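Hello,

I think I submitted the zinc ion job twice by accident. Can you confirm which output corresponds to this input? Input:
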Amino acid sequence: MRALVLADYHRLDLVERPRPEPGPGEVLLRVAATGICGSDVHGYTGENGRRVPGQVMGHESSGTIAALGEGVDGSALPVGAPATFNPVIVPEEQAQRYRGREQHCPDKTVIGVAAGYQASFAEHLLVPARNVVLLGAAMPLHLGALIEPLAVALHAVRVGGARAGQRALVVGGGPIGQSVVLALRSAGVTDIVLSEPSAARRELVAALGARAVGPEDGPLAEQVRAVLGAPADLAIDAVGLSATLEGALASTALGGTVVLVGMGSPRVELPAFAISTEERAVLGSFTYSAEDFRDAAAWVSAHPGQVMPLVSDIVPPERAQESFAALAAGEGPAGKILVRFDEQGAAA
Ligand SMILES: [Zn+2]
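Support: Only one job matched these inputs. Its output is below.
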């Protein structure tokens, strides 16, 4: 099978590797498509220190079940069925303890992040059976690669307690900000403004149902009031810098909530009184629970047309290097790039 190896920083090699064999409790997935995540791009450049040379990255994928290891129930996970995988693996003996908050398990393994785990920028990968999530048969299979970022967004929206009738601000219109708009809408929130410097991204999020504003139009808080008619009840910062958090706080009503999901900087400075005397809550959000992930998979299976605008480009593995280089140089498209493994001569 073919796999994309991070041979060195700034270099992805397409190599031939033996197809892995599923062990007890494991499922072999045949990958249809894998999305390029911002964290993969930072791994490619070496700047986040969370990926290492020699690694096969990839954690946003869909495909089909190719083979089952010993003890896996073939009636629950039939060979040939469309599926995705939840990349967050909790050790089996801790599953009960972390049920409903799997992302809090300190011993978790994250597929695509863990250096020794061959992940999904490859034609096949192994996944524990309990992390496999079946997809609706009617949806275009490659769109299942959007479930993982959608699950990140759904979790952030749930952390923020979003509900119908609220006014919401999303800071940042990249793939996570775009997914947050869809997740807010799925929660019944329709009054959404999103701030984003790129005009191409603003156009994309406008098509998703958010009103988009840019920094050139004036201070964010004023624009939010102008567009929503009042400060936001909830802001979701999908960037994560001092300036974006400050903008989110200033644009939110007293007693409002700001969710920090973007990881733009390891340290930020905050206006203290916007939190203390004005009683705003700043809440962290990271990945998702197993339930969030399953709900995102069900939502995408039922609404493939709504996630379709999130895909800007689909490339074969031969062009992955070129796509990573463009994204690293800040020259990527407005939406997601998917690497498609299930076309032209994919070896069985
Ligand atoms: Zn990701």
